[in-house]
Amino acid sequence: MHLFCLHHAGGTTASFAGWRIPGVDVTKLGYRGRDFGSIAGAADVLAERIDASSSPRLALYGHSMGATLAFEVALRLQDVDRLEHVFLAAARPPWEAPDGATAFSVERAAARASALSGELSERAREILLEDLALLASYPGRRPEGQLKVPATILYSNDDPVVAAIDSARWASWCSAEPRLVELSGVGHLFHRASLDVLAVVQSTLSPLTPIHTATPASA
Question: Which of 104, 99, 2, 12 is nearest to 60 (CA)?
Answer without folding.
Answer: 2
